[in-house]
Write a structure and sequence with these properties.
This protein has about 200 residues and is of the alpha+beta class. Helix content is about 55%, strand content about 10%. It has one domain. The longest helix is centred in the first third of the chain and has 23 residues. The radius of gyration is 16 Å and the shape is globular. InterPro entries: DUF6278 (IPR046245).
Length: about 200
């Protein structure tokens, strides 16, 4: 985990590693290659009748989302956590510094469990209006995925990785590669307006 990871998120991500090791006997190492293992764990958690829905969508989803966010940050050094309210994971998100892209990894983990859109959890990709169509076209070119695969964190990682590459190319075409997207810019764009749904 990176040095600037908020302590609560660090603790949750470490908890995810422990939970998966206890359940599957496999230790997650913080790389994208471990995401299919995490997806399998979340599938088992979803099907575990001994666990209540609140537990699965609470600690399990939140710790998995924290781990997923840290995996993304290990591959995208320009990503940083924004924590609106540390007690409310729906206010958390990752923001990229070099392109405008934000999303909530915990929301994505919740959707991996429920396999449906979780309103208010911002699991979709927030991008600039001017980049929306080029990103959607790029994702469409990849082709459709199976319904059950769409929600998997391993697939979401591939989408995020592709989105970053597309947004970098768009920024280069506009001669904006050196631009920095600060926390203040994200706050004005995302926290001072009603929520919307963008590319996912």
């Amino acid at each position: 985990m990176q040095d600037d990871t908020p302590e609560t998120i660090r603790t949750l991500a470490e908890g995810c590693v422990r939970f998966v090791k206890q359940a599957l006997g496999i230790e997650l190492d913080g790389t994208p290659e471990t995401l299919p293992i995490l997806d399998h764990y979340l599938e088992l958690a979803r099907e575990d009748d001994a666990r209540g829905r609140d537990e699965v969508l609470g600690l399990v989803a939140t710790s998995a989302g924290a781990y997923f966010g840290e995996v993304i940050r290990s591959q995208q050094p320009a990503a940083r956590w924004h924590v609106g309210d540390i007690a409310d994971a729906s206010t958390w998100r990752l923001e990229l510094d070099h392109v405008f892209l934000a999303f909530n990894p915990v929301g994505m983990a919740r959707e991996a469990i429920t396999q449906e859109t979780e309103e208010g959890w911002n699991a979709h990709l927030e991008v600039l209006q001017q980049d929306r169509s080029v990103l959607e076209q790029s994702l469409e070119r990849v082709g459709a995925v199976e319904d059950e695969d769409y929600w998997r964190l391993a697939v979401r990682w591939e989408v995020v990785d592709q989105a970053v590459a597309v947004l970098e190319s768009a920024a280069q075409a506009r001669n904006e590669l050196g631009r920095r997207w600060t926390p203040e810019i994200y706050a004005r764009a995302l926290d001072e307006r009603p929520p919307t749904h963008d590319a996912s």
